Every structure is written in C-alpha cells, then in structure tokens.
Amino acid sequence: MSDRIFYVNGSFVPESEAKISVLDRGFLFADGVYEVSAVIDGQLIDNAAHLARLERSLQELDMQAPCSPEEIERIQQRLITENKLVEGVIYLQVTRGAADRDFGFPEHAEPSLVMFTQVKRIVDNPVMDKGIRVISVEDIRWKRRDIKTVGLLAPVLAKQEAKTRGADDAWMVEDGFVTEGSSNNAFIVTAEGTIVTRRLGNEILHGITRHVVLELAAKNDLKVEERNFTIEEAQSAEEAFVTSASLFVMPVVEIDGKRLGTGEPGPLVRQLRDLYLAFARRGL
Ligand code: PMP
Questions:
Q1: Is residue 283 predicted with pLDDT exceeding 80?
Q2: Does 218 share its domain with 88?
C-alpha cells in the first residue's frame, strides 16, 4: 500500500482509510466523471481548463458539483503539499453519490469527490526518445465521448489488446476514420508539414492539451487542419503524435506494424513538445 494521502469526501486520509460506499453510483453504474491534471515542479498545469471541462461534464449529465472549482483547486494544492508531489498527476473523480441501487437519479444522494496524486516522469519521460507504437482497434464506445465519464471499459480493452499484441497503445477507428487514442488525442503530420487532427464533436474528448497544442501551432505559423483521417493516411504520414495531460506531446513511430518515416520521433513533434513544455512552465 502506498504512503500517499488521499482525499475522500471532505477528509485527507491514508490509502488504508480512503474508502467509499459499495452503493456509490460510480462503482455501480459508472455514473461519474473525472479529470487528470499534470503537476510540474509542484505546479498545476492548465488546471483552470480542466476544472472548466469538469463543470461541463457535470452539467451534461445533470450532476451536482461537490463544491466550487476554487475549493477543488485548494484540495489539489493541499494534496501536492501533503504528498510532496514534484512531478506527476492529480486524479479527481466526482460521482452522483451513494444511494440504494436504482437506475434513475437518487433524490437525496450527495455527490462524492475523490482525489489522489501519482508520481510520473512527464518532462523527461523516457519513452519520448523512442516514441510509441500503436495498433488500430474499432471504436466501440458510446456516443457522448465529449463527456469525460469514468465508463472506461472500451479504452481498458483497447490498451490491453495493444499490450497483448506487443504495442504501446491503440488508436480507435469509427466508420473508417481515426477518432482518437485510447486516452489521448491523435494527430498526424502530412508530407507538406500540415498538422492534422479530427475536429471536435461528440465523437472525441475535447482534449485540454489538444487545444493548447493547436494554439501553439497557430502562433508559430504551423499549418493545421481539423479533419478526419484514416489509418492508411496516418501510416504514410511524415510524423504522428498523441496529446494528453500526462503525456503532453508524445511521438507515434509505428501504426499497425508500419513504421513512419525513419521510425524515430520527427522534428515537428519535437518542436511541438518543446513549445508545450515552455507553455507548461510559463503559460501561453
Ligand atoms: N481523449 C481521451 C479519450 C482521453 O481519455 C484523454 C485523456 N483524458 C484525452 C483525449 C486527452 O485529453 P487531455 O489533453 O485533456 O488530457
């Protein structure tokens, strides 16, 4: 068991005491939403955007917020301090609370809020030098992927299939087009140097890192197209990469066994990663 301090519904407790009810609707129905914010040098990265997306997820599901975003950030800060977190992530989860099992919304449940920290090497992620290899899988998720719910069985199966097949991650495909990575947004770079990623809609999560990367690209006069692309187009792309709060910008060097370019992380993905790191340290 870890010696971390967890936050559970108003209390800061060791893992052995970090417990919620078996009737919690997050556990019974995946009736909950979550966020993951990165921490670098003990500082939260782009946290306001994560808390804004949390508010939106809650609203879309008609779920009560457990407290204000300001209060959530105070709890995050205290967890950073209690756990002496220098680099890693803070996970937070809100559910519709505990009530006797019944599908309809409970009348008297209080939302539950759970948070914990995880140590991770983000800036000097050792995987960065090699990049990751992805496989494609069918996107079997529901139709509201823009809501960040804890219903994550499809990505769990996708990542496990990747592991079984000797790859690092999976890109999900629907109607012939890549939607996104199992827990990240997917990008390719064309021969002309244009950065291509799927446009926003209910088919993908509106990634916080994706948003910043597209802004940074625009500011640095890089060409961006938000449109669908296929696995075949991605396999013949110059470069490819994924973005997420815990990976920042991570090169993809192989798709379904086909190496991209030289098989090494390319110059554009390195440039975008550097731009993102500078943003993380200083802001836009
Ligand atoms: N898509 C999916 C399906 C994800 O789970 C995530 C990470 N939570 C992302 C994209 C990336 O989003 P963000 O940059 O906000 O972490």
A1: no
A2: no
